[in-house]
Automatic annotation (TrEMBL):
<dbReference type="InterPro" id="IPR051448">
    <property type="entry name" value="CdaR-like_regulators"/>
</dbReference>
<protein>
    <submittedName>
        <fullName>Sugar diacid utilization regulator</fullName>
    </submittedName>
</protein>
<dbReference type="InterPro" id="IPR029016">
    <property type="entry name" value="GAF-like_dom_sf"/>
</dbReference>
<dbReference type="InterPro" id="IPR042070">
    <property type="entry name" value="PucR_C-HTH_sf"/>
</dbReference>
<dbReference type="Pfam" id="PF13556">
    <property type="entry name" value="HTH_30"/>
</dbReference>
<feature type="domain" description="PucR C-terminal helix-turn-helix">
    <location>
        <begin position="463"/>
        <end position="521"/>
    </location>
</feature>
<dbReference type="InterPro" id="IPR025736">
    <property type="entry name" value="PucR_C-HTH_dom"/>
</dbReference>
Length: 528
């Protein structure tokens, strides 16, 4: 039997932090969820998750009860996990106290803990590191069980067409509608009609929080429903059969599980689509220009016409990059002409598309991408879309390299466009390449420009910008001052100070050119 130290180590420090661990750490029997109003299921050697325990008094009651029942550990979220009285109570009871990091979904934690207890690999610290190829439908059933524990109710996971993908094992609360849904693997038409009449599906299509559906006149029990979304797309929903309205804390915890379910659902979709996996392997051969690229092109039935490589990068601040990337992959390969060829390399999606007008060509994909980006929910991360030049199949690695070059500009924020195309940014690319080369040559260390830089840093002046505007608008102080949004007289005064600090002959054309190169290198170097 694994002990609490081993269990915490398996799940990892990103999610769990031991606060109190007795010298003789007990073994772990089961993982249970308990709130202070219902502690009946706690037993010997249990690891108890304090879902909804937010006050010191509630935490103390839970810790003391767990100690009396000889549980092994209590898991709490801050700030109650750090309260001195709670820590002392755990130590007195010989009970392990483990802090659950803020933002951790309880359902994810239940899943990981039980996977660790079962001896399955939860990956390195911080959560499930399953590769896409290891996910399966069985994982969805385990997720359904974990979600059922969080909401304390039987759960079904359904796709966007009300097909049942997985359901929890517990059957303690049920009604004929749930039984027929599970038996038929989809919600019956008459049940769907009732929920549609109440506007449930309309709310699902628009919202992101839990929806409470009251009991129906025919005896259908209340439901708590949560939409499953990723990348602006409604992937499905989760339905929990409840006996009455649930607390706001449980409803929120239920809603938080949707991101985990969405990621697992997308992984499952990817691995079940063997054709997409095969295509991705062949596309990678084309992008890398490996020896087998000709065979890959033949197997993909790619025409000899020029193609473009489109790089799409999704970075989500909440750590759901993979889910948004998979959602974008699904969307791109669904119904845009015959579907662009897509592969993932290094966390970036690369689509290969013919450079021609009409169905399936680059203009069609461009319009579809623009429409998709503009229709995305405000909370969804905006993808960075960078487009390489048109190239023959044998030179697709060149197109990919140019797409990567544009993507680097988008990542730095030097360019802000919904879709950035290499040819349309030639002037910016000239400046950034020149800036990179000049910086590598150490031009910034030459001459008197450092004096202006030091003065700007120490005195808060804007002499570098002033000089740059003067060089950009030679002999036109009004245009230069307008660029800086200052009065022309203020601009002239600044330039007198700049000339004095520089001590350089600004009438010399070569001096002006050298200064401009240095300023451009400083501004446009993407690594500076």
């Amino acid at each position: 039997m694994v002990d609490i130290r081993g269990l915490v180590e398996r799940v990892g420090p990103t999610l769990l932090r031991p606060v109190v661990v007795p010298e003789k750490a007990g073994g772990v029997g089961d993982v249970v969820i308990a709130e202070t109003e219902d502690l009946g299921e706690i037993g010997t050697a249990d690891v108890v998750l304090g879902v909804g325990v937010a006050s010191r008094a509630s935490a103390l009651e839970l810790v003391r009860e767990c100690g009396a029942r000889e549980a092994t550990a209590v898991l709490l979220k801050p700030p109650v996990s750090c309260e001195d009285s709670v820590v002392a109570a755990a130590a007195d009871a010989g009970l392990a106290l483990v802090e659950v990091r803020r933002g951790t979904a309880w359902a994810q934690l239940v899943w990981l803990l039980r996977s660790a207890l079962a001896g399955t690999d939860t990956g390195p610290a911080g959560g499930s590191q399953q590769q896409v190829g290891s996910a399966g439908l069985g994982d969805l059933f385990r997720v359904a069980d974990a979600v059922a524990e969080v909401v304390d109710a039987p759960v079904t996971i359904e796709d966007a067409h009300s097909q049942v993908l997985a359901y929890s094992a517990r059957q303690d609360v049920t009604d004929p509608a749930r039984v027929s849904t599970i038996m038929g693997r989809r919600q019956p038409d008459d049940v769907l009609a009732k929920f549609r009449a109440r506007g449930t599906f309309r709310q699902l299509s628009r919202g992101g929080s839990a929806i409470y559906v009251p009991e129906q006149p025919d005896g259908t029990l209340p439901r708590l429903v949560v939409p499953i979304r990723m990348g602006g797309e409604l992937l499905g929903s989760m339905w929990a059969v409840v006996t009455d309205e649930v607390s706001e804390q449980r409803a929120s915890a239920f809603a938080e599980t949707a991101a985990l379910v969405a990621l697992q659902l997308l992984r499952w979709r990817v691995i079940t689509d063997s054709e997409r996996q095969r295509s991705a392997r062949l596309v990678r051969s084309l992008l890398e220009g490996s020896e087998g690229w000709r065979a890959a092109a033949n197997e993909l039935a790619v025409g000899a016409e020029p193609h473009r490589v489109v790089a799409i990068d999704v970075r989500a601040s909440d750590g759901t990059d993979e889910g948004h990337r998979l959602a974008m992959w699904e969307w791109i390969t669904r119904g845009i002409g015959r579907g662009p060829m897509v592969a993932e390399v290094g966390g970036v999606l690369y689509a290969v598309v013919p450079d021609r007008s009409g169905t399936g060509g680059w203009p069609a994909l461009r319009e579809a991408l623009l429409g998709h980006i503009r229709e995305m929910d405000a909370a969804d991360p905006r993808p960075l879309v960078a487009v390489g030049t048109a190239a023959p199949l044998a030179e697709l690695p060149v197109s990919r390299g140019r797409a990567d070059e544009v993507l680097a500009l988008l990542r730095t924020g030097m360019v802000e466009r919904e879709i950035a195309v290499h040819e349309q940014l030639w002037h910016t690319l000239v400046l950034t390449r020149m800036a990179g080369a000049a910086s590598d040559a150490g031009v910034d260390a030459l001459g008197p420009l450092a004096r202006l830089r030091d003065n700007d840093r120490s005195q808060g002046t804007e002499y570098l910008r002033t000089l740059h505007s003067w060089l950009r608008h030679p002999g036109d102080p009004r245009a230069a001052s307008g660029e800086l949004n200052v009065h022309p007289n203020t601009f002239r005064y600044r330039m007198k100070r700049v000339s004095a600090l520089l001590g350089a002959d600004l009438d010399d054309a070569d001096v002006r050119s050298a200064l401009l190169v240095q300023l451009l290198a400083e501004r446009w170097n993407p690594h500076g």
